[in-house]
């Protein structure tokens, strides 16, 4: 995605955001909406072209959770903010982010799958969550394109989906209108710290002076260090890239209406007839290659869900790098270094978690108010290290 602004000499900002994925862009907009007039967002490549672009756009905490823990609360609250978030972005930019509220089906295809969905049904109904258990016939009546041999399904009406690429377009436009400075092609090389507080960032195009810095660099977040003259340590926030590959079919007329999961894969129908199938979970470093074995695994899981996919043309495939912290949990909130704020490690759920991340991180910065919802995800849970 394009961006024309450049960095000036002796640049300053109220807040510098490192990273222009869904997380950095959502935080920038939330800060500007709260009245901050001098927000600067820097991205080493193009805005919105990394993990956030590669994602499936599923907003599905119930289809993914095994228990109602703190993460589930955060994710569900973020999902439930999406209708207002989508309406606000439409109002601000005219871009429809295609929030699709048809809901999600979770299929059981084996005996083990049946046990798994029964467990999920039990804990979620005991927790008072909205879901339905369907027989195979009921599920196929709602979604005739799914496999004839399914054994049953769960239906999650509140687990929905968004067109994440349109979301990125809308966020960029909203930030531009709000006067946020978005600068691509500029890598932050280190964070400068003096007397226990942030004083700015070193970039490939010079120094930017700022007392508040947000690390939203996705899978690259822990490549950042404190600058050599800082004499200060950064928290030991280790983020690793976890590659996910994706295949895109096209179906005219549409083959499926719901987002559909099995325990092994998922398919996501888009409004324009595209059908995404995912994914893989690979520890392969920073390479975004699509591989034969990745595609093979995705295809076999997708065709298990809907054998009719086998006759559709494949129009695209890609991979993205999910940002994963050591404990799989996002890293959110102020560090002990004054002015340094983390918003990274969103792993499989960065699109889902974007609205609540934007809101709570902006409130932590503008009002100095850290929500109790963030305490489990604080960077304080990691030790301090010198240079990462
Ligand atoms: C195949 C796949 C499917 C997925 N499906 C879903 C889904 O259905 N639902 C969901 O909620 N999530 C999903 N995810 C996860 C989601 O995509 C991520 O959690 C989310 O995109 C993370 O957003 P981010 O802004 O942190 O990272 P990114 O989008 O990767 O953005 C980080 C940005 O920071 C920039 N950057 C990094 N370091 C620096 C630096 N030093 N200086 C300047 N810029 C820097 C990068 O260039 C990049 O643009 C999926 C991911 C993949 C790969």
What can be said about this structure in brief?
The chain is built from nine helices and 23 strands.
Keywords:
single chain, 388 residues, alpha/beta, elongated, binds flavin-adenine dinucleotide
Overview of this protein structure:
It is a single chain. By secondary structure, the chain is of the alpha/beta class. The chain is built from nine helices and 23 strands. The protein has helices spanning 22-33, 51-54, 61-64, 70-93, 111-126, 136-142, 164-178, 292-305, 350-366; strands at 11-12, 15-18, 39-42, 58-59, 104-108, 132-134, 152-156, 160-161, 181-183, 188-194, 197-203, 206-209, 213-215, 225-226, 234-235, 239-250, 259-261, 266-269, 274-278, 314-325, 331-334, 340-344, 384-385. It has an eight-stranded mixed sheet with strand order 6-7-5-17-18-19-16-20. The chain has a six-stranded mixed sheet with strand order 9-3-2-13-22-21, with helices on one face. It is elongated, with a radius of gyration of 21 Å. Flavin-adenine dinucleotide binds at residues 18-24, 42-45, 50-52, 54-58, 187-188, 216-220, 224, 244, 246, 278-279, 320, 322-323, 344, 346-352.
């Amino acid at each position: 995605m394009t961006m024309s602004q450049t960095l000036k000499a002796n640049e300053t900002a109220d807040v510098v955001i490192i990273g222009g994925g869904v997380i950095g862009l959502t935080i920038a907009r939330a800060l500007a909406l709260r009245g901050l007039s001098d927000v600067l967002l820097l991205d080493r490549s193009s805005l919105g072209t990394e993990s956030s672009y590669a994602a499936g756009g599923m907003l599905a905490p119930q289809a993914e959770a095994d228990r109602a823990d703190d993460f589930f609360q955060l994710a569900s609250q973020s999902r439930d903010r999406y209708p207002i978030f989508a309406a606000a972005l439409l109002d601000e930019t005219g871009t429809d982010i295609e929030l699709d509220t048809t809901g999600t089906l979770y299929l059981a295809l084996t005996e083990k799958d049946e046990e798994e969905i029964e467990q999920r049904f039990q804990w979620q109904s005991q927790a008072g969550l909205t879901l339905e258990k369907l027989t195979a016939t009921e599920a196929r009546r709602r979604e005739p394109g799914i496999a004839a041999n399914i054994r049953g399904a769960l239906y999650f009406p509140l687990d929905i989906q968004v067109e994440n690429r349109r979301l990125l377009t809308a966020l960029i436009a909203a930030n531009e209108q709000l006067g946020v400075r978005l600068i691509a092609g500029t890598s932050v090389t280190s964070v400068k710290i003096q007397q226990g507080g942030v004083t700015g960032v070193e970039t490939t195009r010079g120094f930017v002076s700022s007392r508040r810095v947000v690390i939203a660099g996705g899978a690259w977040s822990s490549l950042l260090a404190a600058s050599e003259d800082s004499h200060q340590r950064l928290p030991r926030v280790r983020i690793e890239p976890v590659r996910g590959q994706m295949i895109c079919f096209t179906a005219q007329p549409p083959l499926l209406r719901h987002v559909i999961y099995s325990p092994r894969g998922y398919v996501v129908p888009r409004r324009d007839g595209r059908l995404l199938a995912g994914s893989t979970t690979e520890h392969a470093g920073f390479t975004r290659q699509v591989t034969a074995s990745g595609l093979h695994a995705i295809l076999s899981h997708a065709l298990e869900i809907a054998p009719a996919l086998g006759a559709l043309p494949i129009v695209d495939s890609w991979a993205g790098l999910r940002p994963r912290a050591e404990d799989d949990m996002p890293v959110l909130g102020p560090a002990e270094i004054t002015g340094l704020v983390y918003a990274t490690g969103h792993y499989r759920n960065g699109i889902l978690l974007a609205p609540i991340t934007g809101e709570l991180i902006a409130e932590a910065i503008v009002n100095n108010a850290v929500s109790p919802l963030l305490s489990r995800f604080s960077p304080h849970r990691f030790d301090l290290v010198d240079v990462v």
